[in-house]
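User: Round two. Same drill as before: sequence, then structure, for each protein.

Assistant: Same drill it is. First protein:
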Amino acid sequence: MQIKDRPEYKNKPSPLTCTPETTVLAAAKLMANKNYGSIVVINNKKEVLGLMTERDIFRRVVAEELDPSITFVSKVMTAEIRTASENDKLSDWLRIMSNERF
């Protein structure tokens, strides 16, 4: 059984996505409209390039006084994404997430 075939995922909405060329303002509006705390940045092949979170917006846009209407998501996204595999232990990831504060 692949993860996408698991019954608990059938009713889940698709992740919110955008391209790296999306402005921070446009992405933030999408996030606000859907009540999401992050947006997955993908290329035209739907490969994950990064993730932009509310924290990225606060620290890399607001605190740096960048204009969100002309700043691209690619400039402020977190590009080094850590991913789990289906065989990883949840307790290991909870420890990693706690230790690395994400």
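Second protein:
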Amino acid sequence: MPSPMQFLEQEIFAITETTCQAMLGLKVRLRRFQAILEPREDFLTGRVEISGAWNGVVLLHGSAQLARSAASEIFACECFDVTQQDLMDAVYELTNIIGGNIKVLLPEPSQLSLPCVFGTTPDAVVVPEAEQVNNLVFDCQGQPLFVSVWRRLDR
């Protein structure tokens, strides 16, 4: 019998795959080899909080190059026309959609915060006073895309 987190992994995979395919026309697949998320200047992090019957955080980490491809598709423009704000807006939208769909899998009632987006720093890759319950790494256009779920320990 699979553990609840294994079930959640399958759902996170399906949510991410469907979102990237339907919204961006981009194929994603689980990485066959481990990728380590290290704070890098060329990565962006989207973060959304879930609170209520279940308390935690969904983090989305991806390269600026991947965000540029997403923004180009979302805003129907050429990659070279994408602005820094467009990059942030694209990660914001992806974080909101993926986080919102993950929230649906969790105990109710729960609320989803507005997402925030920032550069990937050492503080961005962990959630204090929380345990990481899932971390899936996808390949999308040859770039890693990290989707992690953290459960708060203090609530």
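The chain is about 35% helix and 30% strand.

User: Perfect.
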